[in-house]
Design a protein that fits this description.
Layout (H helix, E strand, L loop, with lengths): L15 H26 L7 H5 L19 E5 L4 E6 L26 E6 L20 E3 L4 E2 L12 H4 L7 E3 L5 E3 L17 E5 L4 E3 L19 E3 L5 E4 L81 E2 L9 E2 L11 E11 L15 E2 L2 E2 L7 E11 L4 H11 L5 H9 L9 H12 L12
Parallel strand pairs: 5-7, 9-11
Antiparallel strand pairs: 1-2, 2-3, 4-5, 4-8, 6-7, 8-9, 10-11, 12-13, 14-17, 15-16
Helix pairs in contact: 4-5
């Protein structure tokens, strides 16, 4: 639910006491309903002891090449209805050397400690009241201890991370503060077994678990199988997010409530990308302050103080309005409301094209596939890959139609069947542009042999 922004900071007075009382009443009603459903189905809504124990380095002896440090990640049941996930942000898997000029990333990979606290029993928001404006920076933590970001890069135009720069062997890269993170599915977090339910991948800030792409029935999920936030109820009636191989990959909105003591700066809770990029920086050099250091005592555990994240606002650009109120009893949810500005002037937009794409590789049951199906040379022969037609999002100029974007993409790939392909992808989308000129160009290219005929892959 989106409303026009009417104030300059914080939660505006109009939301005040009445809004807070309605929110608290709604929270407790939702908790009661969820507990009743759980009792009827015999299924717990809480993070289980097994899930909490899954937050450990996959290889505790692995030394990360950029920092010379080992990964530290663990989760704790606090016994008061909350769970805390602690991480130093160092992955326990291979990475590239950063900064990396070849990939286009000018930042160093550095240690960044965080402690994120969430409800052990997720408190679900009402249907239609999902929090669409997810925060900048981390929206969750993977079991590998690596931060999970949303699928776009926090830059002008909200570019798709894969188009923004080349990501490393494990599909990650560092932010300007040195924080290594994933924007989409990483094959290094878990090794999925074909036809078997994926293990836990991580947890979102609202306490809802994030599972891998294989559902409890053994089918690999794509975004079309999930709701608008990227989740679904399993056969036992438990709600889970799933990371998928197709965009938006991770949760694109929050179905659950955020704790007031979540451990993340309120400055990151704004309505930025993909709705409004006015507060986002242009691509620029690495800041001088670098990343966070280790704990002062040199031991195991995060330092006190605010958690760092990508900067908001800055010289020459407006500071986005904060959408959450974290004041008051920390055991209650933060009061968050979407404030998508009707005055946002994004110069680019997202359109969806239907394309065939390889899904996440998996290891056949009983085979030895190692820690990951992916290598620098490609997917291992022993692993299996399914190809399926999925919706692929593209970031295009705001005045560009689906037809124009499809033709441009098709021409860039030197394909011959662009008209048929784009008719299939864009029929009924954004109207058809005048493609007479492009048809003539296509005929000439085919006649000169400057395009490659493509066939629909067998699936």
């Amino acid at each position: 639910v989106s409303t026009q922004s009417t104030g300059s900071s914080g939660i505006n007075a109009e939301y005040g006491k009445q809004w807070y009382q309605r929110r608290v009443r709604g929270v407790f009603v939702n908790m009661l309903l969820l507990w009743c459903v759980a009792l009827l189905l015999g299924q717990t809504l809480s993070l289980t002891d097994e899930e909490i124990a899954a937050f450990i380095p996959s290889d505790p002896d692995f030394v990360e090449r950029n920092t010379g440090l080992r990964s530290q990640v663990w989760a704790t049941d606090n016994g008061d209805g909350s769970v805390t996930v602690n991480t130093n942000g160092i992955p326990s898997h291979d990475t590239w050397q950063f900064p990396n000029n070849e990939s286009g990333n000018p930042h160093s990979l550095e240690e960044n400690w965080s402690s994120y606290k969430m409800f052990k029993d997720p408190i679900m928001r009402s249907e239609g009241d999902e929090l669409m404006c997810i925060p900048n920076g981390a929206i969750g933590i993977a079991t590998s201890g690596v931060y999970i970001y949303s699928w776009w890069a926090a830059e002008k135009g909200c570019p798709y991370a894969r188009d923004f720069e080349e990501l490393d062997i494990c599909e990650g890269h560092p932010a300007s503060n040195g924080e290594y993170h994933y924007h989409h599915y990483s094959p290094c977090v878990q090794m999925p077994t074909c036809g078997v339910e994926s293990p836990l991948y991580g947890v979102a800030l609202d306490g809802i678990p994030i599972y891998g792409p294989f559902a409890d029935n053994g089918q690999q999920l794509t975004r079309i199988d999930l709701d608008k936030c990227g989740g679904r109820y399993d056969s036992n009636g438990r709600y889970k997010y799933h990371v998928t191989i197709d965009p938006p990959f991770f949760p694109s909105c929050f179905k659950g409530e955020i704790r007031k003591d979540v451990g993340k700066s309120e400055e990151t809770f704004t309505c930025g990308c993909p709705y409004d990029d006015s507060g986002m920086p242009e691509r620029g050099p690495k800041p001088e302050d670098g990343g966070r250091g280790p704990p002062d005592d040199g031991g195991r555990g995060p330092p006190d103080g605010d958690r760092r994240g990508p900067p908001d606002g800055g010289e020459g650009r407006p500071k986005p309005e904060i959408i959450c109120d974290f004041s008051g009893d920390v055991n209650l949810p933060a009061v968050c409301v979407d404030k998508i500005s009707v005055n946002a002037t994004m110069s680019r937009k997202w359109i969806q094209l239907q394309e065939y794409q390889d899904l996440a590789p998996c290891c056949p049951s009983g085979a030895d596939c190692g820690a990951s199906c992916k290598t620098e040379e490609g997917i291992k022969d022993v692993c299996e890959v399914e190809t399926r037609r999925v919706g692929i999002w593209q970031n295009v100029p705001k005045n560009q139609s689906c037809w124009d974007a499809c033709y441009d993409d098709c021409f860039a790939k030197q394909e011959c069947n662009c008209k048929r392909k784009c008719k299939r992808q864009c029929i009924g989308r954004n109207g058809a542009s005048d493609d007479r000129r492009k048809r003539e160009v296509l005929k000439k290219r085919v006649a000169k042999g400057k395009c490659v005929k493509t066939n629909k892959p067998k699936v």
